[in-house]
User: Fold these one by one.
Assistant:
Number 1:
Amino acid sequence: MSQKSVQRLPAEQLFQRELDVLIANETNPVPEGWRMSPKSVLTYICGGRCGGMEITPKYIGNRRLVEIAIATLVTDRALLLIGEPGTAKSWLSEHLTAAVNGNSTKVIQGTAGTTEEQIKYSWNYAMLIASGPSKEAMIPSPVYRAMEEGTVARVEEISRCASEVQDALISILSEKRISVPELGIEVPARKGFSVIATANTRDKGVNEMSAALKRRFNIVVLPAPESLEAEMEIVKTRITQLAKGLDLNAKLPENEVVEKVCTIFRELRRGATLDGKQKLKTTSGVLSTAEAISLLAGSMALAGNFGNGVISDYDLAAGLQGAVVKEDSKDQKVWEEYLENIMKRRGSKWLSLYEECKELNR
């Protein structure tokens, strides 16, 4: 299967040229099990120049937080990235593993249905019944494989896993080995092994992580973008990258379109206008930066396939309606009040979008 036919390439393939240049021009000490030095990983994540190539920033935010995250992986501590939905936790996790190991695909997606076997190992039951426990009948988990190879495994949305599943990680992170009593063996972790987990602050209380498990992690809290300009920069960067892999048949959104979407999301998220002069009701949804990116991608698809290829207020209104007004009937009222009390009063620049949103909101 060609790369062009794949819907979503892993980071190490999508940015292979940048990774190859960083590795080829490496001049700093490289930790055991890593492909490049911590400084080169930082350049890959935050952007810069290397070997005459411009390295695109993958994470736009506090550079010091990225340094702390990378430094954690150099030690024997695991890394926990915490933040609101849409603060690029999974995105940063993927790119860290891509830069460190060249393989970001050792992933466990945490859900209510995640089991302890998915953290450790399971069995091919046909082989198990036919010939009993053996290495060949074992199905190693991503964490198991990462320990064997001395690489980094990712655990997404760890707070959505049941407590007994979370606790399975405690011994792994403490002892740095997995016991397989059926075979009478223990698998020790090779140097370079680590775990990057992510947790959503909106899921706090679903399956609260124990103090014992938290102690096994260095915790980095990823904040929402501090300013409108910073959020717009993130959105424009990501939508440009997304558009390259999708057949949207539309032009990239103009700066004014991105500004409108980010303004609406920030105001409804914080419960006040950007100038702080007027308080607003907030919606049940988070309206994260990631949702703004998805909204614009959807608007591009509408414009490219049913319009003239340029995002119009008609296209934008459809995306906004779906993003803001979800299941909660309260959101409908919040959105109506925002349209009448804020958007309508912002003058001619916003009038067309107001009218299209008002029509859809009937």
Note: The mean pLDDT is 90.
Number 2:
Amino acid sequence: MKIAVYGPGRAGGALALAASRAGHQITGIDGRDPQAVAVLTDVVHPHGGTPELLIIAVSDDAIGAVASVLTTSARAVVHVSGAVPVDVLKPFADDGSLIGSFHPLQTFPNALVGADRLAGAAVAVTAEGELNATLFALAESLGCHPFAITDERKPLYHAAAAASANYTLATLAVASELYIAAGVDPGVAQPLVRAVVDNAFELGPDAALTGPIARGDVATVKAQIAAVRTAAPDMIDAFIDLGRITADIAGNADLFSEVFE
């Protein structure tokens, strides 16, 4: 497939690199940052020509502005947001292009790492008919697992994506601060965290839950809270909030109601 990318950042760069590696022809790279465009162009080496698909990979808030000024002869145009409706691309549809969205459910710390991590990731596709089939085929060619999502369900889906990624990092940030306060290298938790995540997907979060809250060890949790309050007071509110959520999951909310006041 002949593909053009507007937006040479982490997501756009990852998709351009992955698509090129998969045998697709990148016809062009464009965007508002000339330096970033030049860097990605040097890596991907676009062939020129008329694209069949234009991928707009900019921030959610910028998609509408880009759609209002950008023109293309591409048969189809998609954005890569998991939250923004497809209708934001209506100017392209008015000019005869098919429109949709193509949201890789993966994190892109940079273009190179992101391209490597695309294989095996899920991709949320919002499109109809011919374009839906095209985007499913594109995802599969990148080694991804496409699934359909409607515009109506995208905000909730994207909330789930944010919770699974960003909230996990927020929790690990809290844990890291507590390890450091205890004089322990946070890296010691890596095997534990990896095992917990594996268990959560194999067994389900509820069944995978272990620890003092799941066991109902009130005294232990009280001691934890006292220690955090003394050694890492900036983390106490987050620690208590996370404990309250954990107690709800464990079905022990009543047992810990006074502990997490």
Note: Residues 2-149 form a domain with the Rossmann fold fold (CATH 3.40.50.720).
